[in-house]
Design goal:
Elements lengths: L1 H21 L6 H4 L12 H25 L1
Helix pairs in contact: 1-3
């Protein structure tokens, strides 16, 4: 069981790192690749990646806590 949690945690951590790296620091996805809008709201793919980052972080923390008790 502990090995299974470890494998899942590694997979989730890879996805978490990927979603964090896709987000440009201080800029949105559309502004990072040259679309010059002045809007500060997240829309479309940028919003999905933003929410996925929190989802993967939450899953990572839950698995980490579970692995402490097993």
């Amino acid at each position: 069981m502990k090995e299974t949690l470890l494998v899942i945690q590694v997979i989730v951590s890879i996805f978490l790192v990927g979603t964090v790296l896709v987000q440009a620091r201080g800029k949105g996805l559309s502004r990072a690749w040259g679309a010059g809008q002045s809007s500060f709201t997240r829309r479309g793919l940028e919003k999905i990646i933003f929410r996925a980052t929190f989802l993967f972080a939450t899953i990572f923390v839950i698995i980490s806590i579970l692995s402490l008790f097993i």
